[in-house]
Amino acid sequence: MQSITVKAPGRINLIGEHTDYNNGFVLPAAIQKAATVTIEKRADTLVELKALDLNESISTLLEEIKPSEIHWANYIIGVIAQFQKKYNFPTGFSITLKSDIPIGAGLSSSAAIECAVAYALNELFAFGIDKMELALMAQKAEHEYAGVQCGIMDQFASLYGKKDHVVLLDCKTMEYQYFPLLLKDFTIVLFDTQIKHALASSEYNTRRLECEAGVAMIQFKFPQVNSLRDANLYMLNECVNSIAFPIVYNRCKYVIEEMERTLAATENLVANELAAFGKKMFATHKGLSTLYEVSCTELDALVDMVKNKEGVIGARMMGGGFGGCTINIVKKAELNTVIVNTIDAYKQQTGKDLVHYIVSIEDGLVVV
Ligand code: GLA
C-alpha cells in the first residue's frame, strides 16, 4: 500500500460531561462533520504536512519530529511522536488534511485529526496496533502536544461511533455498549456560540486537578477510592468540608451526580422516555454552570432561551465548555420556529450571530 485516505468524524455527547477523566460514563455519538486525511509514503525521510483549508504546509524530517510553532501541525506531529516511541517508520510520508468540523465548537475537531492520522499511519505501515490503543495514542498526543489533559471520550467516539447509535462508554473499564438513538419525532440541533474561550484548556486542566484534590481528601477515610467513580455523596460529605473547600466540594458533587445521571438517562433512552432524558440534560447544564463552572454567559443564555419553548425537551452546553455549542433535542414540527426564535433572541441579547447545525449520527472512522 502506497497511500490511504480516511475520514474521522467529530462527535456530540448526549450526557456525561467531564466524567471521562474521572473514570465515569459518557454517551457520545459520531456526527456527519469529519476530518479527511490522506497519507502517502515517500522515498525519502521527509514528513510533509498540508492543511488544505488553511492553504498552509510545513515539513520536517522523521528524525527531527518535535513540537511545532504551528498550532494545527501539533495534532499531527503529536501522533507521529507517539508511534515513534515504539515503532520505526521505514520511510517518510506526506499528509494532507481537510476538515469541515468547526474549530473550537466543542465538536472534537482536534480528536478527529489525531484519530485519522493514527489510524491511517497504522494501516499504511502495517504496525498492527488495535483500535483502542490508537484511541489512547491519539489522547496522549493531545496531552503532550496540545497541553490539554483530556479524557478518552472524543478519540473513542471518533473511532467507535456507529450510525444512528449512541455509545455508552465506561471510562474505568473501557467497556462499551451501543444503543439505537430512536428520536422519532425529535431531532438534535446544536447552537454554536462561536466563542472560543482563551482559558478553556488551562481551566480544563484545573478542573481535573480539583477533582484529584477531592479524591485525595476522600482517600483519607476511604482508601479504596481511586477516582470519583468510586466515590458517592456520602463519602464526599464525610471528607470534604463544603465551607472550607467549596470549590473542590462543588466540582466533586457535580461529577458524582453526573455519573449517576448518565446511567439513569441511558435507561430513559432505552425505555423511550425522551422527556425524562431531556430533563436530565437541563440538570446537567445547571451542574456544569453552577457547580463545575465551565459554562459562560452565552451558553447559559442559549439554554435559558429554549428552556420553556414548545417542542424543546432538553438542552445543555456540550463538551469542555467556556464556549462552543449547546446540544438541544427538539420536536421536528417545531424545529424551524425554535431555530428562528433562538437566532433572533441571541442576536438581541448578545449582539452576535448564532450558527446552528442539525446533527445526523454517522459511523466512526472509515477508510475512503
Ligand atoms: C473535552 C475533552 C473530553 C471530555 C469533555 C468534557 O471534549 O476532550 O475528554 O472531558 O471535554 O466532557
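^ alpha-D-galactopyranose complex. The domain at 3-180 is CATH 3.30.230.10 (Ribosomal Protein S5; domain 2). The chain has a mean pLDDT of 97.
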